[in-house]
């Protein structure tokens, strides 16, 4: 069991025997275990080095508290694995550089098949260190059972990864999607919207991009673009769309100027460009009721258009 932290099976056996005995010598343990005294003595020296036992006067040994000693070994091994992870990044960079040198005209890797694409994509989603840029547009592959968009992105935001996402307007009209995006914005995501996007796109740390080749679902086949002029062009494309995209308004549920929580929600959807029909679906009401609430909200913020509603929210400091 302790082999994962550098303790051999025999050393663990000696340690367990010492845990079940009073302070004793190597000879005492050798007699208990029916093993050569020299072999037991070597194991005790190793356990002493690892901090699992301490040597007493008279060549006797006592166990150190397992909670503290094993916890220390686990932390040391975790630190070692973190160093390996850092070294792995250097190896990956060296491999990519080799690939680019040998194939300077082909900096694109194709990954195909649902299982391979899913494995690669999930790995990338958990590994960005600094930033993620994304074009988000329908249609989507069916998510795994129990998939939670907010829970998946929360760890990245909490560890300081900058996430900038441009949502195609149709994405925000899907049931429950705007609520998820609003929560992600609250957690730190920077989100904007445009009427239409040319392609789905994911850029990780400005070092690697993923573009689906099927034109629809990411799960079928993807192009992985490594550092190259093509990657630079995709990043420039994102920045160009970002500049002309509209920030998604997240109006506080208890906003000023007499807006109740549901009216604040309607203002959020108006500023995001949702149609009257989409707002009705999000609220779970009839189109007539939705339009009546839209009219009320626009009158409260003195706006005659959706653009003016967004501007009014910005003026009040809600964006």
TrEMBL record:
This is Transcriptional regulator. Transmembrane segments: none annotated. Residues 252-317 form the HTH luxR-type domain. PROSITE patterns: HTH_LUXR_2. PANTHER family: HTH-TYPE TRANSCRIPTIONAL REGULATOR TRMBL2. InterPro entries: Sig_transdc_resp-reg_C-effctor, TrmB-like, Tscrpt_reg_LuxR_C, Tscrpt_reg_TrmB_N, WH-like_DNA-bd_sf, WH_DNA-bd_sf. SMART domains: HTH_LUXR. It comes from the Bacteria.
């Amino acid at each position: 069991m302790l082999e994962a932290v550098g303790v051999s099976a025999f050393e663990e056996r000696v340690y367990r025997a010492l845990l079940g005995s009073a302070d004793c010598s190597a000879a005492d343990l050798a007699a208990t275990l029916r093993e050569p005294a020299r072999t037991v003595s070597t194991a005790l020296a190793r356990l002493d080095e690892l901090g699992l036992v301490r040597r007493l006067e008279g060549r006797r040994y006592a166990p150190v508290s397992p909670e503290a000693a094993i916890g220390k070994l686990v932390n040391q091994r975790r630190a070692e694995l973190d160093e390996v992870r850092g070294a792995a990044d250097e190896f990956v960079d060296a491999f990519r550089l080799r690939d680019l040198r040998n194939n300077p005209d082909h900096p694109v890797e194709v990954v195909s098949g649902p299982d391979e694409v899913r494995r690669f994509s999930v790995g990338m989603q958990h590994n960005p260190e600094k930033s993620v840029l994304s074009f988000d547009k329908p249609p989507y592959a069916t998510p795994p059972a129990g998939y939670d968009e907010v829970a998946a992105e929360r760890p990245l935001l909490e560890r300081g990864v900058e996430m900038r996402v441009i949502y195609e307007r149709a994405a925000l009209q899907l049931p429950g999607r705007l609520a998820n995006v609003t929560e992600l914005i609250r957690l730190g995501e920077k989100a904007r919207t445009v009427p239409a996007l040319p392609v789905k796109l994911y850029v990780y740390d400005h070092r690697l991009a993923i573009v689906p080749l099927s034109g629809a679902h990411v799960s079928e086949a993807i192009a992985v673009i490594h550092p190259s002029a093509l990657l630079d062009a995709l990043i420039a494309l994102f920045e160009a769309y970002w500049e002309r995209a509209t920030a998604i308004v997240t109006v506080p549920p208890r906003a000023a100027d007499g807006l109740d929580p549901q009216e604040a929600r309607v203002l959020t959807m108006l500023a995001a460009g949702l149609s009257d029909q989409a707002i009705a679906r999000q609220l779970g009401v009839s189109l007539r009721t939705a339009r009546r609430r839209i009219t009320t909200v626009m009158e409260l913020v003195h706006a005659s258009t959706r653009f003016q509603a967004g501007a009014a929210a910005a003026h009040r400091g809600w964006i």
